[in-house]
Amino acid sequence: MRLIFLGPPGAGKGTQAKLLTERYGIPQLSTGDMLRAAVAQATEVGKRAKAVMDAGQLVSDEIVNEIVSDRIDQPDCAKGFILDGYPRTVPQAIALDKMLESKGLKLDAVIELKVDEAALVKRMENRVAETIAAGGAVRSDDNPEAFRRRLAEYREKTAPLSEHYAGTGQLRTVDGMADVTAVTAEIEKILA
Ligand code: AP5
Fold first, then answer.
1. Fewer CB atoms < 10 Å away: N or C end of the chain?
2. Domains in the chain: how many in total?
3. pTM for the whole structure
């Protein structure tokens, strides 16, 4: 099973990807998590990505395409994977199409979580509050200014992917405003 989750920041891509990981026994490939790990380890990629991520902008296509291509080659992706936060631009989607073709792989579905933008700031604030309560480190891009920029980047660069995948016949849309369990049930219905 090879899936893509599409949706704006806070739509629930990571939440649903984690739940499906357990259900299907395939890894969640979050480019956001991979980039945050690179920043924490101060690798070359991490050093280049940090300021861009903190400002809520997108890291270059070249960097993320390479990270994803290398990750897909790992043995735990043999049975499939869930892409969470990638692709995020039309050039990334085209690169992914080529990447999968060159590896002899096919996508099973592209699932878009449709959400009301007005609810997203509240979700980000909840995540910040929950992280602090749990004694964790708040993401450096989970603040009002960077979040506004992330939403603007989404509208400008990522939203056009819906049309791209509608064109290939792979796009499925789910109501991301329902509660987490209902969203999962809707996704499982699509995948059944
Ligand atoms: P990334 O880490 O991918 O962040 P994001 O897309 O902004 O998404 P979030 O993690 O904020 O949201 P989510 O949709 O996963 O929601 P979640 O499940 O956490 O990217 C971060 C940065 O990395 C980018 O800005 C960019 O700089 C860089 N980057 C990453 N990928 C890139 C790429 N491909 N190209 C270039 N740059 C890239 O849920 C959010 C909150 O809502 C949680 O608290 C959750 O509990 C809650 N929630 C979830 N579902 C529900 C529900 N149904 N009802 C109520 N609450 C819910």
1. C
2. 1
3. 0.96
